[in-house]
Every structure is written in structure tokens, then in C-alpha cells.
Amino acid sequence: MSGQFITFEGNDGAGKTTVLNQVVTALQPQLGSQLVVTREPGGDPIAEQLRSVIVDEANQDMDARTEALLFAAARRQHLVKTVLPALRQHQIVLCDRYVDSSIAYQGAGRKLGEAAVFQMNQFATEGLLPNLTIYFAVPVSVGLQRIQQRTAAATNRLDQQHRDFYVRVHDAYERLATEHPDRIVRVDATQPVATVTQQVVTIIGKHLHQNLSAGGTES
């Protein structure tokens, strides 16, 4: 299938969702209905229901493997109902989080094993990886400070972790970026939002020019 699947990744507090919204504003005039914006977990009515279970603060006793399986289940539903249909229509999908998040958060953060979580998601996604991933890199201390500045209404169960959890997540993202330089582009997310946004717009623009002008790449 043709189309481009672009994901946004990073520790909590990296600012990726804020930048994603601004990137959409910048790209929308040129891409119009060709642009599809979605998120994980969620992006589909059933996947959104699973998201509500995952983030509910009442579910503090959720087992780590249960959490990982729920993420994978939501991802499968989202992929089948939202992402794949868009790619088949030659659209450009911008997604807030994907498999790398599970590898970092459940594999490393929850200590389930990065390889084990990757394999679980291979089954869920049938091996589909993004064409491009933007990794918003920030030190753990910066991410935690930003999380603390959020209003209580903006936080959820997944924001209530100890510092060592976020260190493991950060380190996993750094490993992924090092291991997959052909797919993952690292952006210094400690810079002002406007600067980060412009850099991401440039990266995506270059990627689309290289791939779509050549007739698209296989997903």
C-alpha cells in the first residue's frame, strides 16, 4: 500500500503533542484532506474505550502485562480501522505514539522486556512500522518538571510513576533512536516550542518530498 505513516514519540513531558498540534496547523493548508491525525491508545471508538480503562486513575492495581496487552489490543483496532485504510487511500498519517511507546514504557519502564513487548506488538501490527518517527528528546528532569506543571485534570494514571521508571523509559528511547537511525529522527525538545515545531515541519517536508515525489514507498 502507498501513503506515509509518521509517528511522534518521547517521554511524558517532551512536548510532542503540543508540537504535533502546531505541525498540523502548519501542514494542513498544503495537505488538506490528505492529512490524517490520530493518537494511541485511541484513534477509533473501540480503541478509545480501551484507552479509558488504561488511563483511569481508579485502576492502580492493573497488572503490567494486562496493561501491555490492552495497549496492543487498542493498537490493533486503531491500525485496522484508522491507519491502514488511510494508507490505502494514499494519505499521510500523523500519529501520537505507536509501538516504540510500548517498547519504552511497558518493555523498559514496567520491566517486561523490550524484546518481549516488541514481539507482542509484531503480532498486533503484523509487523507494520512507521515510515518515519520523530523522537522528542528531553532529559528526564525536564520531562518531570513539565508533568508537575500540568493541571491535575490533565494528568492520568500513567503520569503517576517514580523517577526511575521515567529514566528506564528515556534510556529505552535513546536505544531505539540509536538502533534505528534510518527511521527515527531525534529532535532536541528542550528548545522553544516554535523552534521544535519548525524543525519537525522541515523534517516531515523533506521526508514527504523524497518519498512522495518518487511515487511513494511501500508500507
Key terms:
219 residues, alpha/beta, Rossmann fold, five-stranded parallel beta sheet, 8 helices, 5 strands, 13% strand, globular
Which segments are poorly predicted (pLDDT under 50) over 5 or more consecutive residues? none
The profile of the biggest β sheet is: 5 strands, parallel
Q: What's the β-strand tally?
A: 5
Widest sheet: strand order? 2-3-1-4-5
Structural class by sheet pairing and helices: alpha/beta
Spatial gap, N to C terminus: 6 Å
Computed over alpha carbons, the radius of gyration is: 17 Å
Mean pLDDT across the residues is 93
Give the fraction of residues assigned to helices. Answer: 55-70%
- Beta content: 5-15%
CATH class identity = Alpha Beta
Label the overall shape: globular
Going by CATH, the architecture would be 3-Layer(aba) Sandwich
Organism: Fructilactobacillus myrtifloralis
Pfam families: Thymidylate_kin
Protein name: Thymidylate kinase
GO molecular function, one term: dTMP kinase activity
Structural notes for this entry:
This protein is α/β, with parallel strands linked by helices. It has a single domain, classed as P-loop containing nucleotide triphosphate hydrolases (Rossmann fold). 56% of the residues lie in helices and 13% in strands. It has eight helices and five strands; from the N terminus they run βαβααβααβααβα. A five-stranded parallel beta sheet has the order 2-3-1-4-5, with helices on both faces. Helix 2 runs antiparallel to helix 3 (64-88), helix 3 (64-88) packs antiparallel against helix 4 and helix 4 crosses helix 7 (163-179). The model has no long low-confidence stretch (mean pLDDT 93). This is Thymidylate kinase. Residues 8-199 form the Thymidylate kinase-like domain. It comes from Fructilactobacillus myrtifloralis. Keywords: ATP-binding, Kinase, Nucleotide biosynthesis, Nucleotide-binding, Transferase.
